[in-house]
Amino acid sequence: MKIRHVKVPEGINVSRHRPLADLFVLTAGAVALFAFVGMVALLIGSYAGRYIPVSWENAMAAAIFETGGTAEPQPADVTGLRAEAALQALADKLAANMELPEGLRITVHYLDDPEINAFATLGGHVIVLRGLIHRMPDENALAMVLGHEIAHAANRDVMANLGGTLLLQLALATLTGMSPETAEGLVWGPNALLLRRFGRDAERRADRDGLAAVAATYGHVSGADAFFRTLLEEMGKTVPEEGPEFLSTHPLTAGRIEDLAALATAQGWATGGDPTPLPEALRNLGGGP
Amino acid sequence: MEGFAELWQVLFVILLLVLAFFTGRIAERRHYKSIFRREDVLADIPVIVAKTLPPANPAPATALVRGNVVVSVDYFKRFLARLRMIFGGRIHTYESLLDRARREAILRMQEEARALGASMVFNMRFETSSISKGRRDAVGTVEVLAYGTAVIPNE
Q1: Which tens digit of pLDDT belongs to each residue from B44-90?
Q2: 20 to 30 Å CA-CA from B27: which of A98, A223, B45, B95?
Q3: How far apart are CA A145 and CA A151, in angstroms?
Q4: What distance in Å separates the CA atoms of residue B152 and residue B141, rounded to the nearest whole number?
Q5: CA neighbours closer than 13 Å in the CB half-sphere of residue B109
Q6: Contact call for B86 and A30, based on CB within 8 A
Q7: Are B107 and B71 in contact (CB under 8 A)?
Q8: Chain A: nearest CA to B140, how far in angstroms?
């Protein structure tokens, strides 16, 4: 037996390649794939979310709001309780002029916080912050904000958002193999552009429905845009310019004021009228910390 | 700003990628250089996989020789491999990992054989195992064991 030494040939077991070119092509492909799958998941989830029965939504909300969860805002004192009752009365008045899905009841919570904000969440729960009430010159202005938030609940926007977000989260976790917690951070993170873009149409619709409720309740829409005017003023103080519209959930404020005015003209709602003063319980709540 | 946390994470990944690209490249080049050099030096101890040797009189002495190596790919290569796993295809970056591991294992075995004064190694076998197997997000690390029977000619 003759034994010969053979030098290991190169280029057979290890093929030559360009790692950087590979990286760019594969990354671009992966980004495109994720964006497509994410978009589809978001659309399907948002669509399906609106068809989740109201009773299920209420049950979900009950799990958060009635088991002593931290999500329930607690009115601090008698002032808070009275403010909450006044807000609830105003919401009921508006809701009577709005089309709510069967079984959905609006519950308003007052939150003792100086921030100028209000939001709608699961099960028709609407949260209004003290800072916002302080900035409202009259009941009409506050009614517009409340009407807008009630419209979100009535249009099932909250459920659409939840459905879309959960499915997107699931799709991301499945695609990347990352834990659902990590995916949650990505999806709910401040950079979720997809969600923001999706939210804008819902915001425009909520604006229209809210204004319609104000018109039906008061007979005119005078003063309804006070909230947006306040926002504009605030922005003038803090930041010189608003960001590009694509990046914001809420359509640009100046544009919304114009949209509302155009809608009022188109619908023939009276734009002049005496403002209704704020209920006693909602006056002098203060805007400080 | 809450957005900064995510931004830092992305920057950190990019930094790791850039760093690993260069360090991994240098490490791999150095290793191959060493492999080429030692393969030439140890060329006089051939390694074959035949199970038996032709009968000889007197019978030569034999001994078990082995070479073991644990080697890992860098962050950049692992990142590229994970991307490749989405679309399929050859994972080039792991090819060199296994090639280096197997050749290094043989070299270490040959070095042991030379220390014993062996003329050749027959019945050479490989054992390969993934050390990072089963651990999520672990760096691709393999262990390769090469072993065979060294033939030590009688003086």
Answers
A1: 999 999 998 878 878 889 999 999 999 988 889 888 888 888 888 88
A2: B45
A3: 10
A4: 34
A5: 32
A6: yes
A7: no
A8: 17
